[in-house]
Design a protein that fits this description.
Layout lengths: L6 H23 L4 H19 L8 H9 L3 H9 L11 H11 L13 E2 L7 H8 L5 H10 L3 E4 L4 E4 L10 H24 L8 E4 L5 H35 L40 E4 L1
Antiparallel strand pairs: 1-3, 2-3, 4-5
Length: about 290
């Protein structure tokens, strides 16, 4: 039974429903049965309850989790005994090469666009670019991966490499795209949940919201968003690389990770009707854009 008897409980139910709707759309689109989704949710609930305990290895842990979640002790024990550890995926060398190619001055032209690079040679070549990211994988293997993903092309006759995308969106690589979805949305949601449930330092998590826009207006907004994202990338990636290098040289404890993102989403308003000429008479006040945050 879903009980929204208090305003806070109702607000929580509304928030969880808003989060679950797109998750359900993903499951249906990818053919994931409801039973599998429910099992994943139960596992996550048990893991969250276990992490919330001051001593996760204490006796009577199963009873404590059962009390916190409402799941039976038998169900909790089953989930704990069969807990699946999610291992971190290996670093994406392709995305790191893409990021450095699009931000490092040596690999951009006077207009700031990624240069067409000779595959080999002294100076700004693709080989030098790949080696600046890793010396554990041969540059040719990195190039083959970029070509496979549709991110770059190799002109064999001229022996040059050209970047084909403005953003790292691997063509037809559903597995990698699902990985991006989990990483990006998971961290974004974690930031918002932290801000609601914790009293410690808040994560930056804000948005601007507006409705009653036309499709022509959306096209203009998209151009602004893209320009702002490019400016953010240009400012942050070189800074982060400098910080990584400085932390390594100073032999500091390097136990922190960071993800910075932007998103924009548009949809048709509920009950919207096709555009019509404005009625004669007094001008109706339009809705104003507003800022939202957690």
């Amino acid at each position: 039974m879903i009980d929204g008897s208090t305003p806070q409980q109702q607000a929580l139910h509304d928030a969880v429903s808003a989060v679950l709707r797109p998750l359900a759309q993903l499951a249906v689109a990818q053919g994931m049965p409801a039973a599998t989704l429910e099992e994943l949710l139960r596992r996550s609930i048990v893991q969250a309850a276990r992490q919330a305990q001051p001593d996760p290895n204490a006796q009577r842990m199963v009873s404590r989790i059962s009390t916190a979640t409402g799941l039976s002790r038998r169900e909790v024990k089953r989930l704990v005994d069969n807990e699946v550890r999610v291992s971190a995926r290996p670093r994406s060398l392709a995305s790191e090469v893409f990021a450095r190619w699009t931000t490092a001055r040596a690999y951009r032209d006077t207009r700031g666009r990624p240069r067409v690079l000779p595959r080999q040679g002294a100076g700004a070549s693709f080989e030098a670019l790949a080696l600046s990211v890793t010396r554990h994988v041969h540059p040719r293997s990195v190039l083959d991966e970029l070509v496979r993903l549709g991110i770059a092309t190799h002109d064999a006759e001229r022996d040059t490499v050209t970047l084909q995308r403005e953003a790292f969106v691997p063509r037809g690589d559903v597995i990698r795209m699902l990985g991006f979805l989990g990483d990006n949305v998971g961290d974004h949601l974690s930031a918002a949940v932290h801000n609601v449930t914790k009293e410690s330092e808040r994560h930056f998590e804000q948005a601007v919201f507006a409705d009653e826009l036309s499709r022509a207006s959306l096209a203009q907004v998209r151009r602004v968003v893209r320009a702002q994202w490019n400016a953010l990338i240009d400012a942050t990636i070189p800074l982060l690389q400098t910080m990584i290098d400085e932390d390594q040289r100073a032999d500091r404890v390097r136990d922190q990770r960071l993800r910075i993102g932007m998103y924009a989403f548009n949809d048709t308003l509920d009950g919207a009707t096709p555009a019509a000429p404005p009625p004669a008479g007094p001008i109706r006040r339009s809705r104003t854009a507003r800022k939202e945050s957690t």
